[in-house]
Amino acid sequence: MNMKNLTGPLSANNPVIVQILGICSALAVTVKMEPAFVMGLSVIVVTAFANLVMSLLRNGIPSRIRIIVQLVVIAALVILVDQFLKAFVYDVSKQLSVYVGLIITNCIIMGRVEAYALGNKPLDSFLDGIGNGLGYAAILLIVAFFRELFGSGTLFGVQIIPQSWYIAEGGFYSNVGIMLFPPMALIIVGAIIWIHRSFNKDLQEK
Amino acid sequence: MGLRKIVDNVKPTFSEGGKFGFLASLFDAIETFLFVPNTTTKKGAHVRDCNDMKRTMFFVVLALIPAFLFGCYNTGSQVGLEGFAALMYGLVRVLPMLAVSYVVGLGIEVIYAQIRKEEVAEGYFVTGFLIPMIMPVSTPLWMVALGVAFAVIFGKEVFGGTGMNIFNPALVARAFVFFAFTPQMSGEKVWYSDWTMMGAQVDGVSGATALEQLATTGQMQWSVMDAFLGFIPGSFGETSTLCILLGGALLLYTGIASWRTMLSVFVGGLAMGYLFQAVGLTDYPAYYHLLVGGFAFGAVFMATDPVTSAQTNVGKYIVGFMTGALAVLVRVVNPAYPEGMMLAILFMNALAPTVDYFVVEANINRRKNRIKTVK
């Protein structure tokens, strides 16, 4: 069992900010913390079990049809997650709308299955899936933290910035409306990459 | 030369290895601000000219002064003051915004210069002056600060600092504040100062700008002469077309701004205005577009920015024309944005390198064909 599989994708080999994968959903579901959190959990589950199942099957699949098998496995897992969310957290499921279904197109999952699970043992693959899912979820939560705090003044729906600060209540403050637009999510992801690379010299391009 | 001696005396302290060596770039900025450097380029072919960056930037600020002073006067006159009192009221009203713009902007620039061990670039001298002039006068100061910080970091330093930026930093600040605080940056009250001092009548003063009136009703309550002279509500420095043209004349005379860009922006705006008039989308004269809102200010001071505009002469005509045409297009066709100049200039900033590329390619092809015909 290789614990590096779990810790590597958190920082030095992060799927979002180093491999630049899964950006589309990082922009779409990060307006609020709650959907970002649920989305992160869903992706962790799907990546981990897709990796596990594909690793178990890896010696029995002819390589010509491996993509179609991967799609079947991932699609089945995504449908499971989708139904689970609809049953237990219906509100969040409605907020996430199509993006749960679109986990199937998330490049991270297909990427990990292709690059890792097809050539490694089940337990290592499972850890690798959890690690990459965690790395993805961490970035989602950081982006959502800034977007929800400054865009809506709340965190997980709880008012953080005092109501009395707002202009409407006689204060001076106003929510930064641009935070709710997807372009700002891209700029925040860019800023995270910038800060991350300035601390990790080996990632900097020459 | 007492000052020279003082500067020379403290220089070792601020040089590399000195006590305050980490402040070297700040010291260099102050020294070259006080004294023109007497070091010249030794190697290679260079144009040697007295017109260095600092002097260029100084002339741009000089060109902005008429519009700035008129903006002060207009701020006072919009709240019922007259004469010298109006000018003073406006000056006092806008100075905090100017101070915030310079302190925040230069602060970030100095920090970056220290980190990168470069000299502090002169570019912010103009940007910092432009930013208050394109904001509504009652913009809260912390919004200005946030806009300036965003513009300097994400509009400029990300791309490598002065001279490397894709977008005009002052307009990035304006765009950020506009989209971040839309409720505070539009509407009827924002164009009027809200400070009760010097006997200003601020209670209940509100009203749509000339642009908004034109967009909704097709006419404005001011005469064409008022709009040309600038006695209309609007962003601080943009109202007086006359004063802007005075500054523009200085820029053209000193050769700092390109007449190609400036002229073609106005031509583009007029052409698009006439087109809309001809097809019946607007029923006011096309030249109104050039007088109201930020059109003239953008054309003279923003679109001509040598860094973000096109570099080739043909490119300047194309980019300028499309900037003017786009501004009028946004104004007339999109009801959500009564003012289109900011978006038009930013959009054409992004397209300028592409335009340049095709101009250069066309030139190469033309010359290749010439070789063929000679053979």
Describe the structure.
The complex is a heterodimer of chains A (about 210) and B (about 375). By secondary structure, chain A is an all-alpha fold. Chain A has nine helices and two strands; from the N terminus they run ααααααααββα. Chain A has helices at about 5, 25-30, 35-55, 65-90, 90-95, 100, 105-115, 120-150, 180-200, and strands at about 155, 160. A two-stranded antiparallel ribbon of chain A has the order 1-2. In chain A, α7 (about 105-115) packs antiparallel against α8 (about 120-150). The two termini of chain A are about 35 Å apart. Chain B contains 16 helices and no strands. Chain B starts with a helix and ends with a helix. Chain B has about 375 residues and is mainly α. Chain B has a domain at about 20-35 and about 50-195. In chain B, α3 runs antiparallel to α4, α3 runs antiparallel to α11 and α6 (about 140-155) crosses α7. The interface of A and B includes residues 167, 172, 176, 187 and 194 of A.
Question: What's this, in brief?
Answer:
The complex is a heterodimer of chains A (about 210) and B (about 375). Chain A is mainly α.
Features:
heterodimer; A: 206 residues; mainly alpha; 2% strand; globular; B: 375 residues; 64% helix
What structural class do you assign from the helix and strand content of chain B? mainly alpha
Unreliable spans of chain B are: none
Q: Tell me the number of strands of chain A.
A: 2
Compute the average pLDDT of chain B: 83
Oligomeric state of the chains present here: heterodimer
What is the share of helical residues of chain A?
Answer: 55-70%
Strand-residue fraction of chain B?
under 5%
Radius of gyration of chain B: 22 Å
Topology of chain A as a string of helices (H) and strands (E):
HHHHHHHHEEH
Alpha-beta classification of chain A: mainly alpha
Helix fraction of chain B, binned, reads 55-70%
Q: Order of strands across the biggest sheet of chain A? A: 1-2
Sheet with most strands of chain B:
none
Q: Any idea what the shape of chain B is?
A: globular
The Rg value of chain A, from CA coordinates, equals: 19 Å
Number of domains of chain A: 1
The number of helices of chain B is 16
Shape call of chain A = globular
Count interface residues per chain for the largest interface: A-B, 11 and 13 residues
H/E element order of chain B: HHHHHHHHHHHHHHHH
Q: Largest sheet of chain A, if any?
A: 2 strands, antiparallel
